[in-house]
Amino acid sequence: MVTVRVAYLGPPGTYSHQAARQQFEPYTLEDESVSIIYLPQASIAGCFKSIDDDQCDYSLVPFENSSNGQVVLAYDLYRDWFVRESHRDSGKFKEPEFEVIAEQFVPIHHNLISFGSDLSKIEQIYSHPQVWSQCNRFLEELETKSDHKIEKIDISSTSKAVYLLNTIKSRERRSKCAAIASSTASEIHGVPIRRSNIEDFDGNTTRFLVMGRKQRKLLSIDPVSNKKLSDKKMTLLTFIIKDNDNFGSLCNILEVFKQHNLNLQTITTRPSIISPWRYVFFVEIWYSEELTTALAELQAEVLNLTVIGSFYRSKKFFDMVGAAGNQ
Ligand SMILES: O=C(O)C(=O)Cc1ccccc1
Q1: Is the Cβ atom of 108 under 6 angstroms away from ligand 1?
Q2: Are 120 and 95 within one domain?
Q3: Where is the Prephenate dehydratase domain (predicted)?
Q4: Ligand 1 centre and the CA of 251: distance in Å?
Q5: Within 10 A of 53 (CB to CB), how many other CB atoms are there?
Q6: Which of 88, 116, 203, 289 has its CA 20 to 30 A from that of 220?
Q7: Residue 247 Cα, ligand 1 centroid: separation in angstroms?
Q8: Residue 93: phi, psi to the nearest 5?
């Protein structure tokens, strides 16, 4: 029997749980001797810590959404784990024991879940902060139809938001509270769905990154062999511009990628926390063999150049791009 430990943002019933099952279930279906132990974490930060501490072999985090963009908390955790400079005052940086090894795209369908059937009485809604701006239209409509403001309460995950409805003692209060979460979360916690598919956009999709321990080759299942992968690879890397006051630094960096025919998919910046208004860059590049030479050349321009992972592009990416291109 091969046992693989997978951490995700819990409790069961979150979208992260869905992503973890989507990534690992195919292996159990193919081979009965593989068993997956899913390990729900209380926070996204916990998903990073548990893999570094060797409490799991793989760990997933939400990274970006097709309608409301980056999951900034995940980016900031990548900065905290991978950017040595951001620890220079404490001197406490330690090389992470993990890297990004795969991606998973998950269709996200949100539901309004509540014990109360009269939606005009809802006063408070619980959910994960990433959810609000994916359901703007529904939330605005709901507020217009009720004669009061609706308070949005941030919870560490969508499934926990539904769980919390069960902890409200007073029946009257319960009927005035709701959660936004998946249909699985509604089933698990036994709270009915009052409206389904309340997301603003069709095709609302979250991209999750799968992290693996650097020593995972000792394991006998390898998620990279998943058949739903294309033959194209991506590389996620991070750096800080060395001389912030130097005119054209970013342009010089982009020039290096261009000269090596490296195609960029995204550039994102987050506060570096080294000093105010200094930024950490996250770049995703379509991998090619020229990357190593390009990275060596980039050293002149940047600090803390670190590859967070190289991984095969999911075939779903091309399905989605193709579908959008045909519209
Ligand atoms: O709270 C969850 O269910 C998560 O997995 C985080 C999240 C929230 C909204 C969209 C995708 C992931």
Answers
A1: yes
A2: no
A3: 5-213
A4: 35
A5: 9
A6: 289
A7: 40
A8: -70, 145
Beta carbons within 10 angstroms of residue 117's beta carbon: 9
pTM equals 0.95
Q: Domain containing 180 — which CATH number?
A: 3.40.190.10
Strand-pair partners of 271: 279
Residue 40, classified by CB atoms within 10 Å of its CB into exposed (0-12), middle (13-18) or buried (19+), is: buried
Cβ–ligand 1 contact at 50 (below 6 Å): no
Pocket test for ligand 1, best of 206, 207, 208, 209 (most atoms within 8 A of CB): 206
| pLDDT tier at 143, thresholds 50, 70, 90 | very high
Other CB atoms within 10 A of residue 177 CB: 23
CA–CA distance, 181 with 175 (Å, rounded to integer): 17
15 lines ligand 1 (CB under 6 A): yes
Encode pLDDT of 29-75 as tens digits.
878 888 999 999 999 999 999 999 999 999 999 999 999 999 999 99
Whether the CB of 16 sits within 6 Å of ligand 1: yes
Is 200 a member of any domain?
no
Q: 86 and 210: one domain?
A: yes
Residues 100/237, Cβ–Cβ less than 8 Å: no
